[in-house]
């Protein structure tokens, strides 16, 4: 019990710092979502990037977690939602990147998480209409074979991490035309599974590295989609893969940052975004199958993240997580991206749920 209390204090302190940094990212975006990232070694006036729709959308989930809270979270969620409604295209999609030039299917799907959370919190006809438009546009991009044809991050490249875009659609589109094609999409991507505990393709661009970040996206998308559809075949395989990942992590006390085409793990740097996502996955696995290794690996990853979190007198850096360790690592070098904080908050929330189980104490 003492260890649980010690973990609770440490994780809660890191959670407070992460939220404080996200507040800075929101204020620096003029309350229009959240800045995409902050450069670590630039003056504050020029260090912040523009606001980013995708991650601003799914950060709404975290802002609304504590429904009794009177802090800045609810106000920021409302301001972010107003901004998203303002920038949504007439067709229903949201753009990729920061320049708002091209439609993005993945980003649009991630914003559905924010729409859903907001509507669970309070009724809003504007949000209902926006979610419906986004859903209809997304389903229209899926061909009869289940392949997503438009709005891809890389033209013609449909990697396994799009399972995390399928996940929210499964929950809100069961009565819509195109749902059957969505089910085909899941099977099409599930066929990307490889023997070496990863999926390929599962990268942003063809021939680019397969990051722990994108692999975690894929794994979470498959796991949650399997729960939605009661697909025990996918569920059991995902849990087996996570069990082996937990074993690898516990033996080395380190999560790989990338996996090569041959299945080799690459440890030359740490991808903190992927670590935060895998912490959440370990806790989700524990909630489904309370094996001690899942809990131990998830807690280990949270401790790793807490040690990497920035402590600074500069509020623009205090509480942030570098995207890579060392900070010059290959994933967003010298920058702190807002979605690492989002996934860290997710992991802490899930850890608390694990502590409510008898086997979690």
Please give the radius of gyration in angstroms. Answer: 19 Å
Average the pLDDT over all residues and give the rounded result: 95
Number of domains: 1
Please count the beta strands (DSSP E, at least 2 residues each): 9
- Helical fraction equals 55-70%
CATH class: Mainly Alpha
Strand order of the largest sheet: 4-5-6
Query: How does CATH name the architecture?
Result: Alpha/alpha barrel
Distance between the termini: 7 Å
Biggest sheet character: 3 strands, antiparallel
Describe the structure in your own words:
By secondary structure, the chain is mainly α. It has one domain (2-360): Glycosyltransferase, CATH 1.50.10. The chain is built from 13 helices and nine strands. Strands 4-5-6 form a three-stranded antiparallel beta sheet. It has a two-stranded antiparallel ribbon with strand order 1-9. β2 (94-95) and β3 (103-104) form a beta hairpin. α3 (53-63) packs antiparallel against α4, α7 (163-172) packs parallel to α9 and α11 (272-288) runs antiparallel to α12. The radius of gyration is 19 Å and the shape is globular. The N and C termini lie close together (7 Å). 47% of the residues are buried.
Distinctive features:
13 helices, mainly alpha, three-stranded antiparallel β-sheet, 56% helix, 361 residues, Glycosyltransferase
Outline of the structure:
The chain has 361 residues and is mainly α. It has helices at residues 2-27, 44-47, 53-63, 72-87, 105-121, 125-140, 163-172, 179-190, 212-229, 232-252, 272-288, 292-308, 338-355, and strands spanning 37-39, 94-95, 103-104, 210-211, 258-259, 265-266, 270-271, 324-325, 335-337.
């Amino acid at each position: 019990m003492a260890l649980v209390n010690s973990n609770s204090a440490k994780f809660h302190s890191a959670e407070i710092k992460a939220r404080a940094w996200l507040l800075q990212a929101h204020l620096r975006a003029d309350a229009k979502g959240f800045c995409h990232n902050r450069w670590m070694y630039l003056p504050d006036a020029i260090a912040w990037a523009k606001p980013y729709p995708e991650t601003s959308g799914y950060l709404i989930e975290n802002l609304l977690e504590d429904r009794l809270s009177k802090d800045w979270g609810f106000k920021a969620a409302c301001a972010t939602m107003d901004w998203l409604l303002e920038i949504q295209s007439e067709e229903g999609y949201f753009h990729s990147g920061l320049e708002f030039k091209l439609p993005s299917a993945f980003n649009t799907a991630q914003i559905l998480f924010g729409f859903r959370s907001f509507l669970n919190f309070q009724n809003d006809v504007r949000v209902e209409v926006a979610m419906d438009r986004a859903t209809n546009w997304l389903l229209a991009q899926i061909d009869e074979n289940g392949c997503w044809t438009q709005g891809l991050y890389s033209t013609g490249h449909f990697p396994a991490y799009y399972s995390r875009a399928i996940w929210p659609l499964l929950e809100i589109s069961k009565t819509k035309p195109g749902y059957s094609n969505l089910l085909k999409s899941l099977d099409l991507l599930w066929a990307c599974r490889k023997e070496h505990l990863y999926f390929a393709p599962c990268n942003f661009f063809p021939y680019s590295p397969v990051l722990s970040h994108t692999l975690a996206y894929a794994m979470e998308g498959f796991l949650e989609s399997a729960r939605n559809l009661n697909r025990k075949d996918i569920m059991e395989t995902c849990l087996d893969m996570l069990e082996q990942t937990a074993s690898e992590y516990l033996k080395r006390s380190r999560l790989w940052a990338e996996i090569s085409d041959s299945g080799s793990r690459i440890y030359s740097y740490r991808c903190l975004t992927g670590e935060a996502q895998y912490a959440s996955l370990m806790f989700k696995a524990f909630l489904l199958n309370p094996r001690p290794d899942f809990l131990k690996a998830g807690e280990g990853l949270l401790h790793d993240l807490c040690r990497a979190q920035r402590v600074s007198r500069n509020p623009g850096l205090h509480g942030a997580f570098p995207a890579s360790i060392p900070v010059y690592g290959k994933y967003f070098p010298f920058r702190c991206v807002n979605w690492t904080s989002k996934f860290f908050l997710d992991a802490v929330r899930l850890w608390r749920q694990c502590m409510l189980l008898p086997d979690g104490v």
